[in-house]
Amino acid sequence: MRTIYLDKDIPRALLIKALKPIWPGVVFSRLSIVRFEDVPEPALPGPRWVRVRNRQCGICASDLSLVFVNADASVAPTALPSMDRLYLGHEVVGDVVEVGPGVSRFKVGDRVIMDSRFQSPTCLSQEIEPLCQHCAQGNYMLCENASANLGAHGIGGGWGDGFIAHETELYAVPDDLSDDQAMMIEPMSTGLRAVLRRLPSAGQHVLIVGGGVIGLNVLQCVRALVPECHITVLTRHPHQTEMARRLGANEVEAGGDSYRLVARLTGAKLYEGMFHNRMLLGGFDIIYDCVGSARTLHDSLRWARARGSVVLVGVKLYPAKLDLNPIWFQEVDLVGVYAHGMEPWPGGPRHTYDLVIDLLRQGKVKIEGLITHRFTLSQWKQAILTASNKRTRSIKVVFDYGLPE
């Protein structure tokens, strides 16, 4: 089984970080913590486990952060015990090719995507009873037993021929969706969950910081759920600007003085103190920060109106130095988003994936134009470089296992 994985080796990661400025190719060298290997096909480790053969898989920004060691060992998640080996690729769609005797959710031939498999283990995958409060609610990504390290772990990931997973870590794909649509359910679910964390009202002014695939999906979801709100998107690259306009943004900006832009669009009053210290009174009702850098979060908190909201969708795996004063001074809400789960919905809670599928079927969110490049697995280095370099006009880069090698 061919697969791409990352070994948790902090000393080596620190060495790579030190060498990158003078040797960018070190991330693909023999020193790298990332490996592309053909490993023995594992047996199913238990009766409720499933084997999946991959059809295609997207490349996510979180995958790229790991490959390029764009992370700091002091961030909160690294304090938790975890597996020594991480298999890359979670935006994957594949076919079930083997099931254990205790599997009740799937049969051979079913098409599936990952649900919780790419994150940490859950109460369900570790077969822990009673379930923690979050697993009981269906928000498995927040499992309080994620680091209990009980039982078997899945082997393989989306960047490879296939993987094995506990049946509770997978989600069945409806037959009427294409492979491209199925693969995009997971990244679209992050955008939808972000919007549902702070749903705008008709007529409100919304800002989306970032024109990558997550920002574009947030844009689609806001427009689908609240078509009457005013949406501004901040982008960095021309192809992102074009796509944001095509997907229905009212305003798209790719440079200039963002503080003056916010004042113009929202009617906020802009003030400047010493050392170019700027602050707005007024601003956007809701801001979705799909970049998550110290700079974008610092600015977003100042661009939100009093008692407005900033939703942190993207994230950089580094400690950040920024001004949090707007949270108390203007009572700005700062909320986070992690993956997907159960969402409050009229008639009762529903899985984010179910809601995304409804929107895809209704044509309210679309994938056309988002998938820009396809590669075979043997072209993995080229695929990663293409995804990380926006001058290639990449939005979503995909490993397509139906292409001839």
Could you explain how this protein is built, in words?
This protein is α/β, with parallel strands linked by helices and 405 residues long. It folds into two domains: 2-173 and 370-400, Alpha-Beta Complex (Quinone Oxidoreductase, Chain A, domain 1), CATH 3.90.180.10; 197-340, 3-Layer(aba) Sandwich (Rossmann fold), CATH 3.40.50.720. It is built from eleven helices and 20 strands. The protein has helices at 10-19, 61-67, 133-137, 179-197, 213-225, 238-246, 258-266, 294-303, 325-329, 352-362, 380-388; strands spanning 2-7, 34-38, 49-58, 85-87, 91-99, 111-114, 162-166, 170-172, 205-209, 230-234, 251-253, 269-272, 278-281, 284-289, 304-312, 333-336, 342-343, 350-351, 371-375, 396-400. The strands form five sheets. Strands 3, 5, 6, 7, 8, 19 and 20 form a seven-stranded mixed β-sheet that branches. The longest helix is centred in the middle third of the chain and has 19 residues, at 179-197. The protein is globular, with a radius of gyration of 21 Å.
End-to-end distance: 15 Å
> Helices and strands: which structural class?
alpha/beta
CATH topology of the largest domain: Quinone Oxidoreductase, Chain A, domain 1
The CATH superfamily of the largest domain is: Medium-chain alcohol dehydrogenases, catalytic domain
Estimate percent helicity.
Answer: 25-40%
* Tally of separate domains: 2
* Uncertain residue ranges: none
- Gyration radius, rounded: 21 Å
Largest sheet: 7 strands, mixed
CATH architecture of the largest domain: Alpha-Beta Complex
The rough form would be described as: globular
Question: What is the CATH C-level name of the largest domain?
Answer: Alpha Beta
The portion of residues forming beta strands comes to: 15-25%
Instruction: Tell how many strands the DSSP assignment holds.
Output: 20
Mean pLDDT: 95
The tally of helices reads 11
